[in-house]
Every structure is written in C-alpha cells, then in structure tokens.
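Worked Example 4.2. Consider the chain below.
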Amino acid sequence: DLFTTEEERTNDKLEKVIDIKISDIDDFPDHPFKVIENEDMFNMRDSIKENGVLVPALVRQKPDGRYEMVSGHRRKYASQLANNETLPCIVRDLTDDEAVIIMVDSNLQREEILPSEKAFAYKMKLEALTHQGKRTDLTSAQVGQKSWAVNQVAEQSGDSRVQVQRYIFCSITCRRSWR
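Applying the procedure from the previous section yields the following structure tokens:
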C-alpha cells in the first residue's frame, strides 16, 4: 500500500471478470433449482461452443480458496458439456443472506420453474430477508419482520402475498414428498 496510488487501490477493489477453473466452483448449498439436461441445455452448450459464455457467472470465495456458485449453475453445466475447463466469473464478497437473495432472484427470472423450486426459493429468500441485521430473539419483532419480508418477496416476484405464503407453507409441509 505504501507504493501504490489511490487510483491503483481503487481499481483493485473493483469487480472484474476472471476465468475460474470449473473444478474449483462448488454448487450453492441447498440450491432449489434443478439443472436439467434438455434441449435448452444442449442449445446453451452449442452457443457456448460457438460464442463462449456471454454473461459471467457470479461466485463468492470460500475460506478454503474454492468458490461457491451464486448465479450461473446452468452456464457452468453447459460449459462442462462444451468441454470448457474455465468459466468467466465475477467474484463478489457476499454474506450468506445476500448470496441467497441474489441466487433466488436470478433464478426466478427463468421461464420454466417448477412449483416446488419456487416454493423452496421463496422460503430461502424469506429466511434471508428476516435474518439481515435483525435480532431473532424478539417474538413480536419476528412476526413484523416476517410480514415485511413476505411483502418484499411478493412485490419482487410478481406473485401475490397470499400466493407467496402458500408456496412457503407448501415448502415446509411438503418437503418430504418433493425431494
């Protein structure tokens, strides 16, 4: 730091796209969205073979030096099918809750989502929103926080508050039959 300029220090903090070995990238824990080997996946593989990966994946670094996929599971799999050894990625410093919210939001943009995937995703996002900087030892505050979080999930998803609550209820009560 003594021999660098302010501009160099600022540039070092900017996010950059870097190629990371696919073998060094682990899937997101409890990722609720399935990566399916279907015609769309084969089309993505062919596109990657022809044009490369057009949109970098988002990962975060783990304490052991490996990476955890936040957004880009399908691109990672299609890249593997295309026999690529690396994947262009943005490495971002994220908390667990921030990573869950980004993972859910980026996957809810997909056209085909199973109801079970949506249910588990909404539940994960609700839990992440209620954790963010909030005390969890105050019962009345928890209820208010959960109500606010359900409203947030509903607003951002396009589903009604009641529909989001149904999905979350199903994710809790139907977990055994879906997995």
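Residues 135-141 have pLDDT under 50 and may be disordered. The two ends are 51 Å apart (CA to CA). Compare this with Example 4.1 before moving on.
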